[in-house]
Amino acid sequence: MYHDKHHIISHYERSIVFVESLANITEEQWRTPIESGKWTVAEVIGHLTPWDEFVVKQRLPFLFTEESLPKGPAVEEMNASAARNSRAQSKEETIADFITQRQQLIDALYQIVVKQWQQPFTIGASELTLSGYFASLVDHDLHHFSQVQKVLKNIEGIKWISSI
Length: 164
What we know:
Elements: H1 5-21, H2 27-30, H3 41-59, H4 75-88, H5 91-110, E1 121-123, E2 126-128, H6 130-154
Antiparallel strand pairs: 1-2
């Protein structure tokens, strides 16, 4: 389903609407863990922003060039840092940061010509296409958005969750 430019960009545009809808939840709901001992809604949303930035700045500019891809970040370290930032920021700041960075990703994706979506490239030992690469990122989003929707639906008084 999410294997072409149009569907991937459409997902990212809908993700902005979904995250914007979280502005309507209370601070307590925003700081609710998605499961016992897991990240809060704030941390889940906040950890997506640095990954979008990484893709925009450290992947897309290098994919169809002769230059080597920059080394990827330490996943656990980047996620922990993003979670800390989300705990320190207001809900409004985290949502605004997400929207700004996600829009930059969308803008970058619009610049990629359609034929490049199926052109193979290599990351480490893996050969991928943009379609496959972004399909896995969309799946990652959907996994986390589903977790957020589930916890918010279980909180009394939440009856509206925006669909993604």
